Amino acid sequence: MLNLDSTPTNMTTHPTQDRRILFLFPLALGSFFLLGTVRVLLDNLKNNQFQFLWQSSFSRDNNKFLRVPINVTLDEVIEESCNVFEGQWVWDNVTYPLYKEDTCPYLVKQVTCQRNGRPDSLYQNWRWQPHGCNLPRFNALKMLEMLRDKRLMFIGDSIQRGMFESMVCLVQSVIADGDDSIIRVPPRKIFRIEEFNASIEYYWAPFMVESISDHATNHTVLKRLVKLDSVEKHRKLWEGVDILVFESYVWWMHKPFINATNWEWKGGIDGNCFNETQPIRGPYWGTGSNLEIMSILKDVINKLQINVRLLNITQLSEYRKDSHTSVFGERRGKLLTRQQRSEPKAYADCIHWCLPGVPDTWNELLYGILLQDYRNH
């Protein structure tokens, strides 16, 4: 059972005294409830420009590129009164997807549904539209400028890896050839952008706290043992990172089953996501949106002695039954065989997401919040 009181508390036992820390807690979903936190460290902001915020192994002396002030227009600012997590998915085949699967070389085969044989691409053309306001369109150059001289790290399991890859794909199109690279240092992946002296990183830690499943490739799902009061092992690797994005949920489940019923996925096979091509329409509250857990998390956040923001993207993701990898992904590192694809009841993956897809929206929301904070400071 997920102990929310112990996890966030342990994660904040080593605050940096000379920095003002802002936490954002996203609740993301991949047909299930995905808990997370984002720590955004914004300090020494003057004249709408970022200053150097962190010591790193990357030499500042080598940063010969000029920083560019970010011009944030009024239509790019999320109104304070607007709840961006309440809205609807609207069809948009003009401006979406934000990138193409075949133009981003950093996607792993687990999420490349088109390349893996999925016959439709409709899932790529849906845009999240909040009620009464708009999200700013993702601007890769502005995102990179906000990340200049900083580290952004996504921490969690393979769902979080999808969000990491999404962010990399969202920004890589504007980076000069040869100026970016992926470094694999298990359990981490590091995407370096030399011109901006920045990195976007992924760190495998499915429980956030220490567990027997912490090895990046050799881990178990069914036999799960965790140390609820131990975060030191992981903390050492994310210490000093400017923006931390945590997620965890499915690994805390007693059994690796998704929390969805046949009535939610009517078009599927025996209640799974196979052959689903349209989002859920109309008023809807998904079974994965656990109000009890949300309430507990809210109470814990209120007890923390730091600025905290809750980004609850659970429900908006639950509408997207059409965007899962289904039988067009992989299992245990290998693509499904033709025989396995013919048995969706046994092999359809209704947890992970195709890319481009829903994780891009998570990053659009993150971008909007960062842009809002940037302008306000």
Separation of the first and last Cα atoms:
39 Å
Number of helices: 9
Shape: globular
Q: How much helix, percentage-wise, in residues?
A: 10-25%
Radius of gyration: 20 Å
| Main sheet properties | 8 strands, mixed
Helices and strands, in order, run as HEEEEHEHEEEEEHEHEHEEEHHEH
Number of extended strands: 16
How would you classify the helix and strand content by structural class?
alpha+beta
Number of domains: 1
Rounded mean pLDDT is 78
Description:
With 377 residues, this protein is of the alpha+beta class. It has 9 helices and 16 strands. It has helices at residues 6-11, 140-146, 158-172, 232-238, 291-303, 314-318, 338-341, 344-347, 358-376; strands at residues 21-28, 34-41, 87-91, 126-130, 151-156, 180-185, 188-193, 198-204, 210-211, 226-227, 243-248, 307-312, 324-326, 330-331, 334-335, 349-353. The strands form 5 sheets. An 8-stranded mixed sheet has the order 6-7-8-5-11-2-1-12, sandwiched between helices. Strand 14 (330-331) and strand 15 form a beta hairpin. Helix 3 packs across helix 9 (358-376).
